[in-house]
Amino acid sequence: MTNVKPGDGDRTSGELLLLDTASLYFRAYFGVPESVRAPDGTPVNAVRGLIDFVARLVADHSPAALVACMDADWRPQWRVDLIPSYKAHRVADEEAGSEEVPDTLSPQVPVIEAVLDAVGIARVGVPGYEADDVIGTLATASAAPVAIVTGDRDLFQLVDDRRGVRVLYPRKGVGDCDVVDGEAIETRYGVRAEQYADFAALRGDPSDGLPGVKGIGEKTAAELVTLYGDLAGVRAAAGEPFSKLTPARRRNILAASDYLDVAPRVVRVATDVPLPPFDPALPGGPADPAAFAALSDRWGLNSPLSRLSAALGWT
Predict the structure, then answer these.
(1) Which of 120, 157, 231, 233 is spaced 20 to 30 Å from 252 by Cα?
(2) 278 and 261: one domain?
(3) Which function does this protein serve (predicted)?
(4) pLDDT tens digits, 76-116
């Protein structure tokens, strides 16, 4: 495999497809029955579901390049240092810092990684960063249009109609996707895509352990960001006794100053991750034919891998 850095080569003829891999295999796990098993009875519902979803994405969107972005660090220490509650409720082992994952999903993750490697789909993760940060860096650097496939709304902040960056958001499990562009974000949330991170910081997100500002939910956060332009504008208004903010909102925003000092750095995805060399091109055949065949036999993946092979134009 040729090692190239993102942005190298001719990718302007088609779309760069970026997979938020963990988000998608979690959805596959819960969307495909656990009765889907390997010949020895081991559950492979997440493996098969993800392979079939990737095959469908490739067939439907004909991307010029594809990268499976990985969580090399699902809860980076630098984010925890800023907000200790960040994803704290998901920690399964406090000492190891491991994420709580269903018992029958954990053994499937190495199989997913091995399949991606055998197929030849670029798999990129960077120590100290989440998949979101890898996606943010690749999407920002890409000269080609970008489709980000994720079930994580945090990545809506990367949508950019001018540069052709959009999100494909699975409706249920890993089935059909909603196309999320700037108009869709404004319609759903009442803010522009470039305001989404500030809106999310104000609103908070219990699923990520982000408290937000007391008394400010989604609707109010959108109203404030729209009225004052960004988080800095909202905070400046809170410091002005004659602003349009109610006394209660002013007090709550000022009381949350310590949180708001650091929240934007936690909520915003990094766009400057030092990525390793990799080849984002779609594979013209298995990168490791022997491993490809062995994985197919061992885990009963002949049908989904055949569909992926067909989508990639191998057959």
Answers:
(1) 157
(2) no
(3) 5'-3' exonuclease acting preferentially on double-stranded DNA.
(4) 999 999 999 999 987 865 555 566 678 899 999 999 999 99
Using CA atoms, how far residue 171 sits from 3, 182, 265, in Å, is: 35, 18, 29
Burial of 99 (0-12, 13-18, 19+ CB in 10 A): middle
Q: Render pLDDT for 274-313 as a digit per residue (tens, 0 to 9).
A: 999 999 999 999 999 999 999 999 999 999 999 999 999 9
Mean pLDDT of 32-57: 96
Backbone angles phi, psi at 248, to 5 degrees: -65, -45
- Phi-psi region at 44: left, alpha or beta (left = phi > 0; alpha = psi -120 to 50): alpha
Q: Are residues 126 and 32 in the same domain?
A: yes
The residues, any chain, with a CB within 8 Å of residue 236's CB and separated by 6 or more, are 228
Q: In what order do the strands lie in the sheet with 65-69?
A: 122-124, 65-69, 16-20, 146-149, 165-170, 177-180
Residue carrying structure tokens 């220490």: 77
* pLDDT tens sequence across 7-32: 433 333 489 999 999 999 999 999 99
DSSP annotation of 107 reads T
pLDDT in tens, 184-221: 999 999 999 999 999 999 999 998 999 999 999 999 99
- pTM recorded for the entire structure: 0.92
Same domain, 220 and 261: yes
Same domain, 131 and 279: yes
What sign does the CA torsion over 99, 105, 107, 113 have?
Answer: negative
Residue 130 in any domain: the answer is yes
CA distance 310 to 297: 18
Residue 247's domain comprises 193-267
Number of domains in the chain: 2
Integer Cα distance of 127 and 76 in angstroms? 9
